[in-house]
Structures are given as structure tokens and as C-alpha cells.
Amino acid sequence: MRSVVLKYVRRTPRVIVAEGFVRSESDPRRWYNVFVEIDRRTCTVLHARCTCDDFYYRKRLCKHIYALYREVTKYGCAP
């Protein structure tokens, strides 16, 4: 069963912008909408957004953002 489904990925010379759905580990019927913008030179997250409570209330990078980041960068992020 897939835990990450990509909605779109846009690669430019400077950034990778991706949005997708990440499945909750505690409730497999629930999916979170996640957005990341990644700097291609340093492979770091510039902006991120998630619909989970942890990110919404605490403004911390959550495991859903990390899951989408790993899926998008598993083939590298070099320009």
C-alpha cells in the first residue's frame, strides 16, 4: 500500500516544487495534503505546508513533509 501519492512535481533550475498526499500512519484512511519547495543546489526545504495538526498548530516540520521530501528527492535534486 502506497503512503505517498504525488499530485505534481515542477523542476526548475533553482527549485523543485511538489505537492502530494501522504497517508497517516495512525489512521490509514486519512490522507494529508503536503507541499514542499526544495532548493536544488543545497537540497534543503525552503517552504513547506501540511494539513496535519502537528504542523498547523506547532508550525514544525512533520513526518508527512519528510515523507514527501524523501519521495521527491530519492533520485537526487541536482540541476
What topology does this entry show?
Blueprint lengths: L3 E8 L3 E9 L7 E9 L4 E7 L2 H6 L4 H11 L6
Give the quaternary arrangement of the chains.
single chain
Give the strand line-up of the largest sheet: 1-2-3-4
Overall strand count: 4
Supply Rg. 12 Å
Query: Which overall shape is indicated by the principal axes computed on the Cα atoms?
Result: globular
Q: Could you report the average pLDDT, rounded to the nearest whole number? A: 93
Low-confidence stretches: none
Measured as a percent range, the helix fraction is 10-25%
Measured between the Cα atoms of the first and last residue, the distance is 31 Å
Largest sheet: 4 strands, antiparallel
- The figure for the number of domains is 1
Q: In sequence order, what are the helices and strands, one letter per element? A: EEEEHH
Computed structural class: alpha+beta
